[in-house]
Amino acid sequence: MENFIFQNPTKILFGKGMEEQAGTEVRAYGDKVLLHYGGGSIRRTGLYDRIVASLRRAGVDIVELAGVQPNPRLSLVRQGIQLCRERGIGFILAAGGGSVIDSAKAIAMGVPYAGDVWDFFSGKAELKEALQVGTVLTIPAAGSEASTASVITNEDGWYKRGFNSELIYPRFSILNPELAFTLPKYQMACGASDIMAHIMERYFTNTREVDFTDRLCEATLKTIIQNAPLLAAEPDHYAAWAEVMWAGTVAHNNLLNTGRTGDWGSHDIEHELSAAYDVAHGAGLAVIFPAWMKYVYRHDLARFAQYAVRVWNVDCSFGSPERTALEGIKRLESFYRSLGLPTRLNELQIPEEKLEEMADKCTAGDRQTIGNFVKLRRADVLAIYRLAL
Ligand code: NZQ
Ligand code: ZN
What we know:
Elements: E1 11-14, H1 22-27, E2 32-37, H2 41-45, H3 47-57, E3 61-65, H4 74-87, E4 91-96, H5 98-110, H6 118-121, E5 132-137, E6 149-154, E7 159-164, E8 172-175, H7 185-203, H8 211-233, H9 238-250, H10 265-277, H11 281-296, H12 301-312, H13 321-338, H14 355-362, H15 378-387
Parallel strand pairs: 1-8, 2-3, 2-4, 4-5, 5-8
Antiparallel strand pairs: 6-7
Keywords: Oxidoreductase
GO molecular function: alcohol dehydrogenase (NADP+) activity; butanol dehydrogenase (NAD+) activity; metal ion binding; methylglyoxal reductase (NADPH) (acetol producing) activity
InterPro entries: ADH_Fe/GldA, ADH_Fe_C, ADH_Fe_CS, BDH-like
């Protein structure tokens, strides 16, 4: 196990009706807020009205910015920065999924910065300060509600890039599993896929002697594998949403990577798909992760066999470690398909001609490698895209 410092400052308010506390939580940081949300799901479900009422009860002035799209865009982030500066806003409340939360975090980064906020995502600038953010989560998926990341798409060139800093951990996140009842089945499945990917990115590591976190990862994966099918059959299954929502937060709040170095290659490879084709991140991951596994499993057969046995209950007497490992990958793919997710690039209408360009962008023209478990160059990324065809 590696040395580590673990400090996740996000306060979690979990359970039925917790959004009623949004006002009190925000008031602890000031009397004016930017309420940031997406394409309108929170208005349709009535969540908007409950949040606004709670903020008013607490004496908080509200400025609104709606319209965050999935794969959130830089142009709206810039508008948000302008709005916060003009109206003297110091706190942002994001109500929605990963896209809304990431957009809020990027606005928070940009307000005190004199240059252009994209400088952080392109690696040109280092973040020194940011406004504070709180969230009301409506979809368990991205884990942004307790993560250090923001992932933004720059429409100028369609670059989707992530930025990480402890300064953008949300101050609080409200997790009411009931808020997810209205999610379409496909969005639920995309969320399950993203949560599993966050765990698997951490699981496939070269760090030795990490049995405790291996087992935490396995338990968290099994929780999703058990509960997502229940949600596919019964969208208002509170108990199953509660399991998935909390597992989704823990999957990405950095607890599961304590003492170990994760991979993250599949995320980088996927981000090219959602940047260029606007596919849902979780759907892209369902296509890329099995292909990545097929490409790298020989690097550590024992770890892949362990994953197959402990997570997918592949029988140890199944045969050789290689057959065991491959059966684990097969069961992951079947699971994705059982949830209605794509597992091939052609299901996302991504043509073969585009693969070279995406591999190029992903590795900055072969000037940088991606991933840690196996360091991948341009040719490797291209081979993974081809395995996903
Ligand atoms: O915009 P609205 O109307 O709210 O509709 C959304 C959106 O269309 C809808 N939705 C959300 N909650 C709903 C609902 N519809 C009905 N009922 C509800 N309760 O779902 C759609 C997808 O929302 P989105 O926020 O895009 O989903 P998700 O949470 O999966 O976020 C995906 C984004 O997060 C990034 C991804 O790259 C992607 O851009 N990620 C962020 C990470 C982070 N910051 O730590 C890590 C992840 O790996 C990921 O990269
Ligand atoms: Zn993800």
